[in-house]
Amino acid sequence: MKFKTKRLLPVLVVFSHNCHAFDWLFEPNFGASERYTDNLRMQIEPIRDNLITRLSPGVLLGYMAENHALNADFKWNELIYHGESELDFSEKIADISQKYTGERFAAGLSARYAEQSTINTQLDLDGSGDLQVQIPKTTRSVAPNITYNLTERDALQFSYNSTDVGFTKSPGLNLSRNYSDYTNQQFSSSLMHTFSERLSVNLSGAYVEFSSSGRRAAPAAPGW
């Protein structure tokens, strides 16, 4: 079946106002590094030197439009400890950010999920210090914000940040003093006034709440 191209141009003109232009983003990447340490366990005795290989494949995805954009960055870090295979670890990190700009306001959102390596050196039962373990750390965070333009010179901004960090502790090891799960929340607001291109004044306030080890700590005093 043949399609009459003469009718295509009028159709595009009629429906062009409903179309949205997007710039799509796809960027794969790969990194590799080799690190040498002459005392991995940071002890006087025994001293062990090691080569540590890092292989880092990743990909960046997203799009850009006239008034909003989205970026998603995914990365995998493969850590290889030569001669210390019990310390090998696969890090997984995902970062996502989105921005939107309206006529009088702008909004943004960023989020992060990460499983990362944490190396601990702890004394053995005989006090030799020849005991090193891999303690995975998981981080979850989200941070939305919004800015509203009251006038051409005045703007009001509100933001929030929540971070949750947890450690996967090895059974039989008392690591409670060194590694404690915690959560952190922060509320903040700012009033901004622009006098000129070179002079502006900001009035900011923040409230932070921190809790750790399953027990809620007293909230911090507001800051200005």
Structure notes:
β3 (68-81) and β4 form a beta hairpin. Residues 11-18 have low confidence and may be disordered. This protein is 4% helix and 58% strand. With 224 residues, the chain is mainly β. The strands form two sheets. It has a ten-stranded antiparallel β-sheet with strand order 1-2-3-4-5-8-9-10-11-12, with no helix packed on it. Strands 6-7 form a two-stranded antiparallel sheet. The protein is built from one helix and twelve strands; from the N terminus they run αββββββββββββ.
Gist?
The protein has 224 residues and is mainly beta.
Class derived from helix and strand content? mainly beta
The main sheet orders its strands as 1-2-3-4-5-8-9-10-11-12
Oligomeric form of this entry? single chain
The number of helical segments is 1
Mean pLDDT: 82
**How much helical structure, as a percent, in the residues?**
under 10%
Characterize the overall form.
elongated
Largest sheet: 10 strands, antiparallel
Strand portion, in percent? Answer: over 45%
> Termini, distance in Å?
71 Å
Q: Which spans of ≥5 residues are poorly predicted at pLDDT below 50?
A: 11-18
Radius of gyration over all CA atoms, rounded: 26 Å
Q: Would you report the number of β strands?
A: 12
Pattern of helices and strands: HEEEEEEEEEEEE
